Amino acid sequence: MSYPLRSLLAATALMLLSPLVSAHTVWLESTDSANGYAVRFGGHAGVLEDFPPAKLEQVSAIDAAGEPVAVAREDLAAGVRLQTAEPASVLTLYFNNGIWSRLPDGRSENLPMDQVEGAESAVNAVKYHKYIARWDAQATQPQGQPFELLPLDAEAPAAGQPVRLKVLIDGQPAQGIALAFGEEGDDAVSDAEGVAVLIARSGVNRIWSGQRLAVADNPAYTQLSTEYSLVFHAQD
């Protein structure tokens, strides 16, 4: 699979290896219908937010053999529902939240900095998500996301037991990246090999991670923010 990744004309050193302030992520929740999913956005302080469906730019699903699974998409007034043609093992999303320019009074506008009079800074915010519906061989296979959390254990997680995750950036292990349950925090930090260990919780586990890079000589934005969420289930 391939995912869009905006190239940086000039990116300086990594600014943030800990969770982003007021983090917002995108993730899937299973619905009552067979093979059905609802796309969720938000999560900061437990608050869900509506979003323009056009911001969800890419949806993919694979089966236990790694073969593509067709996904039907229903764009609603303020969100998206998905339905896979057959049971999927792994689903992935790419969500482009656009550029948010910050004004001196603290307000933000969803426009490039050079289009907002008086803007002092701007963040280009992109979101990636992986939903592990069935813990089979595909759970430990990289999906080619520019930023990705990769489970390392073939055995399905059990509540109260450690889960090893490798942080990959452009396919390479990344050190010093924070991971947390839900939104924000630093429950674990990746080591020199990109590996972090968390203790699985009973039921749905939603793991956050991300980074923020400073961008130089770009009139549209001053930072690139990447946020990631991984969802899986752990049995008692």
TrEMBL record:
- Pfam families from the xrefs? DUF4198
Domain of life per record: Bacteria
| InterPro entries recorded | DUF4198
Signal peptide range equals 1-23
Give the record's keywords alphabetically.
Answer: Signal
Q: What is this protein called?
A: Cobalt transporter
